[in-house]
Design goal:
The complex is a heterotrimer of chains A (333), B (279) and C (323).
Chain A: E1 11-20, E2 27-37, E3 42-46, H1 53-61, E4 68-77, E5 80-81, H2 87-96, E6 98-101, H3 115-127, H4 131-144, H5 150-153, H6 163-175, E7 181-185, H7 193-210, E8 214-218, H8 221-227, E9 230-235, E10 238-244, H9 245-250, H10 255-262, H11 265-268, E11 315-317, E12 323-325, H12 329-332
Parallel strand pairs in A: 3-8, 3-9, 6-7, 7-8
Antiparallel strand pairs in A: 1-2, 1-4, 4-5, 9-10, 10-12, 11-12
Helix pairs in contact in A: 2-3, 3-4, 3-6, 4-6, 6-7
Chain B: H1 2-38, H2 70-106, H3 108-123, H4 126-137, H5 141-152, H6 154-167, H7 171-178, H8 183-219, H9 230-237, H10 246-273
Helix pairs in contact in B: 1-2, 1-10, 2-3, 2-5, 2-6, 2-8, 2-10, 3-6, 4-5, 5-8, 6-8, 7-8, 8-9, 8-10, 9-10
Chain C: H1 3-28, H2 34-42, H3 47-57, H4 63-75, E1 81-82, E2 87-88, H5 89-124, H6 129-143, H7 146-159, H8 178-216, H9 219-226, H10 231-269, H11 274-283, H12 287-315, H13 317-322
Antiparallel strand pairs in C: 1-2
Classes of the chains: A alpha/beta (333), B mainly alpha (279), C mainly alpha (323).
């Protein structure tokens, strides 16, 4: 499992800043986001809705909405710079090397096209193969993701499948191009709890079998515990803490990460008494355009100090992998 | 800074609607006070026939084949066209709201029957139906208003029904039903006030359709023979289309501006009421 | 599997029956009946003669009986007799339905095609000058009275030297056949079709723009993009088909309105169709003919609705499953 440090990362994001263009001054939705993914590992990006998790994913695959733009920073994928890449090259990479699974399987498949056709399309885009070969790939992928009676399913339209089945189709569609990187954007959020677990197990099994590299975006720490090797915690467009899954879940340093864990019942139970004793995180994420120069969690932070609102905290490296952005020495001990 | 861009952005989106509202207000003033202020009788032959617009300062918009003042005709026409448009869509709204409310509130057999009726009325080509109704009842302002209402209520009924179907499931309505409040009181005092806004918006756009329908009727010679409307003026002007095209052009522009303004205002109100639907 | 079809047919029968009843009631609310018209025509006021005629046409029977007779005649496609034209109404209609369908069909399909293209282009270049132009054009098309547009086209083309004929369906006195005849008809068709079509073009362009934009914002479009498909493939293969569904509904809903529009347009351009026949029937107080036209045009609308329903089941698998 453990990866050697000197190995080059498959995906490396450095100081990524993304702006929302509006009439007037642009506002940043992502600021100085940095993290990397080693091949074969599962990295989870966690945070509340609106913290920039999905924007990060969209930036990687080059599918930011027209109102947003990468202002600065680098994204390098397999040694190639993506920020300066042409639209054509990005399309090629999406077709062959990077695949996505989205949140809501009920709306993510085209209702007027058969499952087979949609899978076939992905395979053709990836390999430029014949339709027959593409159908073959589609069928084997459907079987691989555990869809019973796959042959007849190919002829069916999305509306005749359940949510869990559709998410399996989405996963099959993503995997049929043998991607180097799979980005799963809240892949279980829209599903029933029992189905959620099935899909997580499926992802875990496929990851182990195919040694996939996965970037999973979630707000669910259960998913993190289940799947992730590394965790990136984001808040209001910035990375506040990142590290190995044990480091983040067992020895969280940032007040926000701690709050997030405390807000998750499963992790709140049996916490040591000196742990900050609140379950919900008071207040809300500061609005776009109303974010000051200081730490963005300052207004909600139980450990905020006088200097927190004035300037952004330095990033502190606690171990080789564990990084946190907080000025509170008390917290970091 | 943000406030400023906001204001500009909003004006760009609301600008047309605001302009339309101003135009409609002007038209309303012309329709109400114009005939009294302007004074000239649109029927009397006041000058030489076929005076072109701007040819004589007293009759700025010219005269028609009988030497009648075009400007006077347009002013009287504004009154009648707007009146017919408003009256017809009010009447259509009353029919539609009543039937839609009953269908949506009582559901079941009443709903089935009324919806079949609505469907039937929507199937019959409405302008041909309108022609037949007016031809048979004899053209007069009242019959035209009623006939236009009779062919244009179905969309209102459908919308009202949909609103009632959803509103009647709300807790506050259920509470009224349980407390034994009378059906009429629930329909008119409890549900209708909450359902009426989108219905009124739709009805206001019906005014535009009604004005167009009336104009087409008058053009075909099925207008009230005792009244001057824009449609009549175009119909009469058609006789001298090649020699004096302004007789058709001017009233046509009047209709165009009125209908455009109503549509723009309707779009604007729709935007405000459900911002999601606008793009 | 069969149940929905039966329900559908049953509903259809009810709708047709209701249309017939409305027709019957409207006609019977006319002051005087066919006999009065006939007698007035012939200048005969003899009470015995009119009573005899009434008995002959069944007009002395109670209303429900007359309704029954009326309905049973309708079932045999007997729409009554036009005393003005001295012909059965159905024959008159049959002679005029072709030109009207040609006019309405050309206008609607032309408007559909151009409207969908314009709306799609506008949607894919949202907020561009082109988008703005198309939106303005659509608003103008919405607000222009159809008959007035026709007159203005006549005036403009008269100024332009009469490039296109503005009256009738063929050049009068022309004995052209074959291709020459076809070209003659097409030349005559241009102005009426444009006049009738502009409003529908405006409707389809607006609707197509909105529904393409709506389709483009759907999650499955993001999925398609994430597969690396090119922009135009996403637009044409994934978005447009979904966007066409509401347009098809609108097309079906507007066919009846277009028949109504044809009355005015045919009056402006002397196009020898159903609309002009209706216009003549009004001025000649030929109520039998008028109600026959109303009934037949309603049936046409029903037929078009059925066709659209069928088309829908071809495009949309979700409906196919239910039906």
């Amino acid at each position: 499992m453990a990866q050697t440090e000197d190995m080059q990362a498959l995906l490396d994001i450095r100081n990524l800043t993304v702006n929302l263009l509006r009439s007037g001054a642009p506002v940043d939705v992502l600021q100085d986001v940095s993290f990397s993914i080693q091949a074969g590992r599962v990295v989870a990006v966690v945070g509340e809705s609106g913290c920039g998790k999905s924007i990060t994913a969209s930036s990687i695959v080059g599918l930011l909405p027209p109102s947003m733009q990468i202002a600065s920073g680098q994204i390098s994928f397999d040694g190639e710079d993506l920020v300066g890449a042409s639209e054509r090259r990005l399309r090629q990479l999406r077709a062959k090397s990077m695949a996505m699974v989205f949140q809501d399987p009920m709306t993510s498949l085209n209702p007027l096209m058969t499952i087979g056709r949609q899978l076939q399309e992905a395979a053709i885009m990836a390999f430029g193969c014949s339709t027959e070969k593409a159908d073959e790939i589609a069928l084997s992928m459907l079987q691989k993701v555990g869809i019973p009676d796959a042959v007849s399913r190919l002829q069916e339209y999305p509306h005749s499948l359940s949510g869990g089945m559709r998410q399996r189709v989405m996963i099959a569609m993503a995997l049929c191009r043998k991607p180097k990187l799979l980005i799963a954007d809240e892949p279980t959020t829209a599903l029933d709890v029992t189905i959620q677990l099935q899909i997580l197990r499926l992802l875990a099994d496929l990851q182990a079998e195919l040694s996939l590299t996965i970037l999973i975006i979630t707000h669910n720490l259960g998913v993190v515990a289940e799947l992730a090797d590394d965790v990136v915690v984001m808040y209001a467009g910035k990375v506040v803490e990142s590290g190995g899954v044990d480091e983040i879940l067992k020895t969280p340093k940032h007040p926000y990460t701690r709050a997030l864990l405390a807000a998750t019942p499963r992790f709140a139970i049996g916490q040591p008494p000196e742990r900050i004793a609140f379950k919900e995180i008071k207040g809300t994420v500061p609005e776009l355009g109303k974010r000051g120069p200081g730490c963005r969690f300052e207004a909600r932070c139980p450990a905020s100090e006088p200097g927190c609102a004035a300037s952004a905290p330095e990033t502190v490296r606690i171990t080789a992998s564990h990084i946190v952005a907080c000025r509170s020495r008390e917290m970091l001990q | 800074m943000i406030g400023q861009t906001h204001w500009l952005h909003r004006f760009r989106r609301r600008g047309p609607a605001v302009l339309a509202a101003v135009i409609l207000a002007l038209l309303a003033i012309i329709a109400i006070f114009g005939p009294a202020v302007y004074g000239t009788d649109p029927w009397s032959m006041v000058a030489a026939p076929f005076l072109e617009p701007l040819e004589e300062s007293e009759y700025l918009l010219g005269t028609d084949a009988l030497g009648r003042d075009v400007a006077a005709g347009l002013i009287y026409g504004a009154r009648l066209s707007l009146l017919i448009g408003l009256a017809a869509s009010c009447a259509a709204m009353m029919i539609g709201v009543l039937l839609g409310a009953v269908a949506g509130y009582y559901r079941g057999a009443a709903d089935d029957f009324l919806m079949r009726c609505t469907e039937t009325f929507q199937t019959i080509p409405s302008f041909i139906f309108l022609l037949v109704l007016v031809a048979i009842a004899g053209p007069s302002t009242v019959t035209i208003v009623i006939a236009i209402a009779l062919v244009s209520w179905p969309p209102i009924a459908r919308l009202t029904r949909a609103e009632f179907l959803s509103l009647r499931e709300r807790e506050y309505v259920q509470a009224c039903i349980l407390s034994g409040m009378g059906d009429m009181r629930i329909i008119f005092l409890q549900i209708l006030p909450n359902a009426i806004t989108p219905v009124v918006v739709m009805a206001s756009i019906l005014v535009a359709n009604a004005i167009l329908s009336e104009a087409a009727l008058s053009f075909l010679g099925l207008g009230d023979p005792n009244q001057i409307t824009w449609g009549t003026m175009i119909g009469v002007g058609r006789e001298s289309l090649r020699t004096a095209p302004y007789l058709c052009v001017l009233p046509g522009i009047a209709i165009f501006i009125t209908v455009l303004a109503i549509n723009l205002l309707g779009d604007g109100i729709n935007d405000v009421l459900n911002p999601r639907s606008s793009s | 599997m069969l149940r929905p079809v039966i329900t559908k047919v049953f509903r259809l029968a009810i709708t047709i029956g209701m249309i017939a009843i409305i027709n019957f009631l409207v006609i019977h609310s006319t002051p005087g009946d066919a006999v009065d018209v006939l007698a007035g025509e012939a200048g005969v006021a003899d009470a015995g003669y009119t009573a005899e005629l009434r008995q002959k046409f069944g007009l002395d029977q109670p209303l429900p009986v007359q309704l029954f007779h009326y309905m049973s005649r309708l079932l045999q496609f007997d729409l009554g007799y036009s005393f003005r034209h001295n012909m059965p109404v159905i024959d008159l209609i049959a002679g005029r339905i072709g030109p009207t369908m040609l006019l309405v069909g050309t206008a609607l399909f032309g408007a559909l095609l151009l409207g969908v293209v314009a709306g799609t282009v506008a949607a894919s270049r949202q907020n561009s000058l082109l988008d703005y132009t198309i939106s303005v054009l659509a608003l103008v098309g919405y607000a222009t009275p159809m008959f007035w547009l026709g007159l203005m086209l006549v005036v403009l083309l008269a100024v332009g030297g009469g490039i296109l004929p503005a009256s009738g369906m063929t050049t009068s006195g022309s004995t052209a056949t074959g291709l020459a005849y076809l070209i003659d008809v097409l030349r005559h068709l241009v102005l009426p079709a444009v006049t009738l079509g502009l409003f529908y073009f405006a409707t389809y362009a607006r609707l197509a723009r909105a529904s393409v934009l709506d389709a483009l914002s759907q999650d499955y479009i993001r999925t398609a993009r994430s597969k690396g498909l090119a922009g135009h493939t996403v637009l044409f293969r994934h978005a447009l088909r979904n966007a066409l569904l509401p347009v098809a509904t609108m097309f079906s809903l507007q066919f009846g309105a277009a028949l109504g529009g044809a009355v005015v347009v045919e009056a402006v351009f002397a196009w020898p169709g159903l609309g002009r026949l209706a216009f003549e029937a009004i001025s000649q107080r030929d109520y039998n003919l008028l109600q026959g036209i109303l009934f037949m045009s309603s049936l046409l609308v029903i037929a078009i609705n059925l066709l659209t329903d069928f088309l829908y089941t071809v495009i949309d698998p979700r409906i196919r499953k239910r039906a």
